[in-house]
Amino acid sequence: MANQMGNAYALTLLCPIRHGVPQQCPEGLGGQTSAACVRYLLQDVMRVSLDSPMAKVPNTYLSRFYILEDVPYQGKPAKLEHLGSNYLVFCADFHGDLDTWLTGMWNAIQPEICGLLQYCFGFESVHDCASFITWIKKCQVETTFFFDGSTDEPLAVQLKNLYLKQEFSKFVYANQGNGPETIQANFREFVALTQPDNIDAPTWKPGAYGLDKVVSGLKTQGAG
Amino acid sequence: MSNIAGKAYAMNVVTPLRWYTAWFNKLMFWVSGHFNFVTKGLQTLSLIHYARWVVIDGSQFPRLSDKQPPEELKYTYMLFFSNFNGSWDQYVDSFSSAIPTGLNIFWAFNIKYPCSVPMLPFHRYITANQIWTDHYYNAYPMAASNDVKAAQRVRNGLLGFIADTKDSSAQDFQLKYNQLLMTLQHDVSQMGPNPIVSLSAWAVEDRLRKERPAAGA
Asked: Is the same domain home to B155 and B209?
């Protein structure tokens, strides 16, 4: 199945957006179309990775949303044609199987994702996790070809690896020119602090910008 | 609207092709998925996190309600999504330079596809058919794809080294430490923000700065 390569899954959704003006709009958007409400929520409420709700969805490497308003026209002699509806295009690259990931999404960001998808056709049938998964699968389109250029590890392992890479690089730089006894003693402190075999902590936070914000679970400062 | 999340850029391209040539594209993708020699070129582009192609015709657009009009499209459409590091120009030029033939195979028979070389018509084609991302999330904005791969080697190397030097003398430790650094010399480097990350992060910080006084009032 082209949706998967190794343990990485490529989810592609085309969620049809309702036509016209919705009954409930975000504050200040009264009279705007459903598509405008969706775009507002994506751009002004969900923002970028710094505080994206997607950071709370387990095992999500990357994801994106955009609105497909129409199909591109290539100029004469190509035919001009139009879509009958706007589509919210959602893509996610994540580790594991689809049902587990969607359940994690529902549990982590149900208010945010329902707030967004309420403007789509048929979403009124969603009232729990099972109906959410059913609705999502109706919007799914099969990936024709998926290329995974990454490491095929769970996100927690990748984040731990990145944390260690950063800290070990600092360690190597700080210990240049030191004698064997000093390096060995410092390395023991480094291992005690960074806990390379502990995936959960200390590690990098998903979605965090800036070296001052990225580390989580560090109990003591100092070595390295 | 942001195509950038840290060091990753989200590219979306939608292009039409005739229904009777779409099968060729699907066949090429099937071959690429089953035989490594086709994707070997893609693997040399180590700046890519993930990429995907979706080929659909009008009848495959999801229809969730009777109130939703069915799509009546004559063309089949190819949707391309990529997550890569660096600038738009660097990426498009890398594709064009590194795997021009592979690119031409993947986009074969797409309407008015100009071929990957020369670059300027190819740039125009991508620009004309690119759609901007409304929300982009990246789990590791500070890291490039090569950092993710290097980090795996660093941790694996460290775990082996820790086990191997548990009872070592200081001199033996030094010897193995030097060997470790030789092995990992291409992978040990500190990650930091680059100018693109800074611009993107600056926009976020700026918005939060503006909101803070309002929230405190």
From this structure: yes
Task: Answer with the residue of higher pLDDT: A86 or A44.
Answer: A86
The model's pTM is 0.92
Report percent pLDDT > 70 for chain B: 90
| Residue that finishes a domain, picked among B129, B162, B195 | B129
Query: For residue B10, is pLDDT > 80?
Result: yes
DSSP code string of A64-105: EEEEE-SPPP--TTSPP---SSEEEEEEEEEES-HHHHHHHH
User: Is the ipTM, as predicted for this complex, more than 0.90?
Assistant: yes
Which of B42, B135, B159 is opposite residue A42, by nearest beta carbon? B135
Angle between helices A180-194 and B170-183 (to 10 degrees): 70
The domain total for chain B is: 2
Partner A, chain B 84-103, Cβ-Cβ below 8 Å: none
- For residue A92, being part of any structural domain is answered with yes
Nearest to B140 by CA among A49, A149, A199: A49
Going by pLDDT thresholds of 50, 70 and 90, the confidence category of residue A136 is very high
Res B215 pLDDT > 80: no
A81 and A177 share one domain:
no
* Pair (B125, B82) in one structural domain: yes
Range of the domain at B83: 4-129
Which of B102, B129, B156 terminates a domain? The answer is B129
Residues A103 and A101: their CA atoms lie apart, in Å, by 5
**Which among A144, A164, A166 is the top mutation candidate for probing chain B, defined by the most B β-carbons within 10 Å of its own β-carbon?**
A144
Q: Which domain, by its residues, includes A110?
A: 4-139
pLDDT in tens, B187-208: 999 998 766 554 555 666 677 7
| CA distances for A18 relative to A84, A141, B156, angstroms | 11, 19, 50
* Among candidate residues A112, A139, A166, the one where a domain is terminated: A139
In this prediction, residue B46 carries a pLDDT of 87
In this structure, chain A runs to a length of 224
The reported pLDDT for the residue numbered A224 is 38
| B79 in contact with chain A, both atoms CB, cutoff 8 A | yes
Q: Looking at residue B39, which CATH number applies to its domain? A: 3.30.70
